[in-house]
Structure to design on (700 residues):
């Protein structure tokens, strides 16, 4: 039987595989989340950060955005886009902002409190973002670096909301 | 014991009460959701629409936005804002777009597929939106009408995602 | 001499040519703008609408977004994207919202007052949007229809701002 | 003769005055812009940064947003908002993100390339943002600090676009 739509499972698997194929492990993203959120959540573990990243990646909008951005990176790497889009993405042109637009659509799903976290790690080129920005490798990661930062910041917002809920359920832990 | 933050329960209750105090029942919003989504989901019930609206209202970002927009409406109604902001909101000035900005922040939480639904019912002044736009009553609903439309469109996006999940679990219902 | 960046003129020309190559004339977009704005601006002419569309198309962010969206449509039409992204765009899947995300980034440049106009014409499938949505042609316009609607709504917002400025300079035209 | 709308001049003046009344000079914002953009534009002057900030402040959407955010800060300072909104803004609650939503609506007008700049200076509490975040003064600047950061980042995006245009007109200045 043919579905009139693409099965959600296929979309989710493809998104996670696309990340891996581009050299990104969930732990790489979770480390960014840990960097952002550990100052605010005592005893935060890497395991919780990985869990939060996984939850973000379960959202359909995140999967769609990842698949689209990574496809554009790969096609650019293979030189298969038309001019001048090929050059704009290849050079990661400072006036080309579609990568940031896609990143923001991921952040928005977890509300606005993650905006500043995203900007902060993007500028610092923290963790895996430094490797993704290495222009000497021939790899094109114009979209991927922004998307990875956005997923990390979204996972961070998610933890902030959850931590509050936890505090409210155990009021004796509050000073 | 004093919390270092506002309890989430207080925020949620206040948001729902603010809607009621401004004459909006959950059913009013759910009717907009039904209008938007019933062409796409066979056998959709009002009960499911009410449930979806309730889920949207459980999101902290939605509550914050509602409380802020309704407060600005009420303060304007009482004439307590400074000039010229008082006049901008009172006249629901066509070049004043902060109400749409707040509405969009609600939509974003459920992804981008609700954007067009929001614009559509806002223009049509469907259902309760007609009453909210009646300028002869002395009431100021400059923010509320946009927020109600956004909650209805968000609840509609949420149903679209859920309906797909349901279809995928019962493949025999597909032709 | 080689520029370290893509000349802006090349980007602008490519964006306008991409529209034409996909069968969209500036007049098609201007007609949507006229439909949206003529109820509010007495004596609005098609010429003014074409002028406003041209101004919107002069913005770099709009050009970048157009080039990216149209490229994805064309690659999909040629069957050159990876699965499942190929299927998502080809079927113009209702849960795929990256096209709306790109459309919104165009609208945002002219502020929030155009959001509802965009949603409205998108739902009505007004003018050229009906043709772009015809799924029987083998053409893929999953991105283009949203981008055309967004450019028309942006041009409409721009006219609203300009008309106000004009009214304020000729106060005797006001009743 | 009474206008059916608020004169644009009044809105612009009120926005600039509101900034001054809250202790913010254009130079304070321009210094943030200089901090962000001077690494990329050789010979950038403070005068050019002040000019760019002034241009951003001439946009109607920016004025509307500033007036709304500052009004909410002032009303909170006077204790005139309802509970729990009063407490949410007074404590500058980490889960309250309406201030970031307003900031983003300013950034959007200059496209997406300013997102990361905004996040970066907001996190660093660079320049005047440190003073605005001083919670010991009794002043409430929950909205103002985000809006100032957004205006500075928007002015920075604007300079980036202008600098490119300048380079393209004087190709002999390029190595």
């Amino acid at each position: 039987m043919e579905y009139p739509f693409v099965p959600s499972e296929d979309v989710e698997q493809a998104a996670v595989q696309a990340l891996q194929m581009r050299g990104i492990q969930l732990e790489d993203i979770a480390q960014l989340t840990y960097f952002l959120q550990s100052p605010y959540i005592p005893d935060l573990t890497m395991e919780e950060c990985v869990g939060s990243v996984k939850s973000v990646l379960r959202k359909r909008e995140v999967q769609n955005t990842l698949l689209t951005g990574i496809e554009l990176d790969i096609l650019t790497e293979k030189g298969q886009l038309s001019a001048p889009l090929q050059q704009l993405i290849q050079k990661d042109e400072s006036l080309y902002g579609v990568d940031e637009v896609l990143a923001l659509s991921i952040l928005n799903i977890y509300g606005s409190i993650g905006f500043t976290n995203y900007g902060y790690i993007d500028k610092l080129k923290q963790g895996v973002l430094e490797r993704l920005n290495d222009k000497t490798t021939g790899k094109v990661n114009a979209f991927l670096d922004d998307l990875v930062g956005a997923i990390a910041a979204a996972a961070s917002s998610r933890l902030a909301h959850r931590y509050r809920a936890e505090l409210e359920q155990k009021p004796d832990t509050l000073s």
User: Anything to note?
Assistant: Chain D has one domain: 8-165. The two ends of chain D are 59 Å apart (CA to CA). The domain at 8-165 of chain D is CATH 1.10.3760.10 (YutG-like).
